[in-house]
Amino acid sequence: MEQYRTRSPQYGPRRDRPPGPPRQPVPSQAGRGAGGEPVRAARAPGPRRRPAQVRRPLPAPAPAAGRLPNPRLTGLGGGLFCAVVMFLLGALCSALFGASMTAYGVLFLPVCVLTALWVRRGDLMTAPVVVPIAFVVGLLPVADGEGGAGGTLMGLVTALATQAGWLYAGTLIAGLIVIVRRIRLVHRRRTAGARPPV
């Protein structure tokens, strides 16, 4: 009997046959690497978020050349401002106009207007109070007196009696300005309170 030779199996790919395509992973092993570790799918590149821009406060606008200053004075500051200005104006009137009460009264009116406009909102009611006091302070260098405290006091009382019209006019102007500002302030507060929340 003839015995057929059996060839020993050769491991590895044959030389005459080209290597085939790589094997696809088994569905149960999909998403895992060669060692069995889970493989994360690469995310599609999305739109990058830009960092939020920091808003810097705008610089305060420079005051215009022809614009009047608009300070905010306290009640005490408004009284000191009015008294000092009126005393200086009284001294100026006494030196230039020979203690003219008319010039002093005319200069008193714009000082009343400025005091009522520049006092801050919380001290509005102080403006009509400090204006008459400043009028009396400004009369010290203007009032004619024969000398001494008694003469100065008599000259001051005489000036107040004869120039009461300027005093009442300045106080009335300051009071009207304060009332208008107060009404506007109350109206703004009511308008702001009536607005629906955003």
TrEMBL record:
Residues 26-45 have a biased composition (Low complexity). The keyword Membrane applies. Residues 1-69 are annotated as: Disordered. Keywords: Membrane, Transmembrane, Transmembrane helix. The chain crosses the membrane at residues 76-97, 103-119, 126-143, 155-180. Residues 73-184 form the DUF6542 domain. This is Membrane protein. It comes from Streptomyces variegatus.
